[in-house]
Known about the structure:
The protein is α/β, with parallel strands linked by helices. It has helices spanning about 15-25, 50-55, 65-75, 100-105, 135-140, 165-175, 180, 190-195, 220-225, 250-260, 370-375, 380-395, 410-415, 440-450, 455-470, 480-490; strands spanning about 5-10, 35-40, 80, 85, 95-100, 110, 120, 130-135, 160, 200-205, 230, 275-280, 280-285, 295-305, 310-320, 325, 330, 340, 345, 350, 355, 360-365, 425. Helix 1 (about 15-25) packs across helix 12 and helix 6 runs parallel beside helix 9. The radius of gyration is 24 Å and the shape is globular. The model is unreliable at about 410-420 (pLDDT under 50).
Amino acid sequence: MPPLKLAIVGGGPSAFYVASRLLSLLPESSSRASHLKIDMYDRLWAPYGLVRYGVAPDHPEVKNCTHKFAEAAADPRLRFFGNVNIGSLAPISHALPLSLESLFSHYTHVLFSTGCTVPVLHPALPASQFCVPALSLVHWYTQHPSNPAPPPLERTSHVTLIGQGNVSLDVARMLLTPPSVLAKYDVPQPVLEVLARSAVQHVSIVGRRGPFQAAFTTKELREMMNLPDASMVPLDAALLSAPPSGPALTRQQARTLQLLQKGSKRTPGTTRKTWSLDFFRSPTGITAPATPGESARLALEHTTLDARTHAVPTGESSTLDTDLVITSLGHRAESGAPWYDAALGHMRSASGRVIDAGGRIVRNVYASGWAAMGARGVLVSTMMDAYMVADSILRDHFPGDDVHTTPISESDAAAAVAGEGPREEAVEVLPREVEADAIPQEVAAGLREGRVTDFEDWKAVNAEEVRRGEVLGKERERMGWEEARDFLASTRPRTTSY
């Protein structure tokens, strides 16, 4: 049996879940252990993707999955190479460029776990100094290597968020929580300094449908209600009752209604800051201020729900003066990614197997997580998808053996019954035999030069970030790339074993 040498493109939760599953299904004690080699590449210099650079800092419990990922990385069959940008797109300027051709020539199998990194923009709200995607705020307060500029909070009193999902509430909470409360969490000191100068007084959270269709979870809403220094503007009483007809409320809808009826912990009128949920409003445009110091003007179309609970205009409209509009409308994969489907907003795949434009399987090329299913779901659903993809990889490599450990998704099963699955013939893009331990020469040179990181580098940085955080009385104090590179250069000799 030839070796299974897998390159994983991406170093976030999906990538680590797949790697962990493969390693556990082929443990080092098994006769097949030597068949498996996994190299993980990420354009970010640090591992864990959205867990490090997307999870809200005041949600440290969500990051507990990194313990499992670190256990996987301790297996000598898994290697991590950070700060390597694969493909033609180069959003991280300091990352080492590596072509797909160079990667493919060294591996028998490739998995794309590249996520959905491009924010979906509103067609009526072009990007400007008055309108930015939520992703830029998230990347700012998590010190993402893309290094976005901080928002001008010192001259911003009113912020409007477009979209009522959890990311909107994360951003609102960061803007409304006192920096003294955030200081104990994983919030970089430069971010705390900007928040300390913030002039934000009110945050409007706008959605085109009503409270029973809002995408935020009850947990996130409860956190907003319990903010120590901000209160919610009371809602119209008409919004605070269950619909007289139609299906019964779900458990989450009932809990949302109870929270909205109860209102915020702090009484409106007693806090310095306020926030509001503006339901049944859809933006139609934004007008920049005529003179410096004035607010922009956001045009809003009033909506209602049709029989299918779609938002439709009522014919009424209004305007809202605001200093900064932040859009949070979801994400898609990069359009330049291989086998990207514009209609889907992500790669084409079935049960993890990548499909080309002609409907043919691309042999031994896979996709997992948001790269395969779009930007939806939470860590648990990402884990289950990753386990399914790991099964597909092993079933393909060990045909006839019982390696099926997770159920086939309903959509894939239905497609198979209907004859809508991929065509049987396969496209060949990868070699069948490669050197077991060889990596692209560009990556080997990058490791020697200190431009590419490995997991030992990350362990050293992680320990130092935690140590610095302890000095400041917080979870950790993060490093950016330049600081991390200098720290590693002074503490760890570069390996020449690659």
